[in-house]
Design brief:
With about 160 residues, the protein is of the alpha+beta class. It has three helices and ten strands. The protein has helices spanning about 50-55, 110-115, 145-160; strands at about 5-10, 20-25, 30-40, 45-50, 60-65, 70-85, 90-95, 105-110, 120-125, 130-135. The strands form two sheets. Strands 2-3-8-4-7-6 form a six-stranded mixed β-barrel. A three-stranded antiparallel β-sheet has the order 1-10-9, with no helix packed on it. A hairpin with a 5-residue loop joins strand 2 (about 20-25) and strand 3.
Length: about 160
């Protein structure tokens, strides 16, 4: 299976990760291009109701969605999601929701149902936020193990310098 990845780099620290996406109606081929907000607090992807209507997504049933302070039954759909490099393509379930942000560019939340299909990481080194995602998963990232190895080699290096 081929490995595909995307990286989103910012010139400053960001409190949101937003990337371009294409959502395709799998029945008609109609496409909408929008932006997706990566949300590790969302169990699954959601699409704004107006965009679901725009590409004529067909409701497949009702799904209960839970927000911070509410719970409601909403239509869900099957659609194809292409992430910003268009190499990462997934057929997924999306629940329709009312607008969830004042930023009209953002048409969907990318939830844990997508994030758990691969490896996802965010760093904020030197004042730049970098998010990267690859599919399928290729390994674990363990900062504790990395730090232990670094500290071990630092200790060895200091001992070597004494001699």
């Amino acid at each position: 299976m081929p490995i595909h990845a995307l990286t989103n780099t910012s010139d400053r620290i960001r409190n949101q990760i937003i990337t371009p996406v294409k959502i395709t109606n799998i029945d008609t081929g109609e496409i909408v291009e929008t932006f997706g907000l990566w949300d590790t607090g969302a169990q699954s992807c959601v699409i704004r109701h107006d965009l679901a209507s725009y590409i004529n997504l067909v409701p497949r049933g009702l799904k209960t969605i839970r927000g911070v302070q509410s719970q409601e039954n909403r239509d869900y759909y099957y659609a194809n999601l292409k992430l910003n490099n268009e190499q990462i393509s997934l057929d997924i379930e999306m629940t329709d929701v009312d607008p969830f942000t004042s930023d009209k560019r953002i048409g969907m939340l990318i939830g844990m149902d997508v994030i758990t299909k691969g490896d996802f990481s965010i760093s904020n080194f030197n004042g730049h936020t970098v998010m990267t995602f690859r599919k399928p998963s290729q390994g674990t990232i363990d900062y504790c193990a990395e730090n232990a190895l670094y500290n071990k080699y630092q200790k060895i290096h200091k001992e070597w310098l004494k001699h």
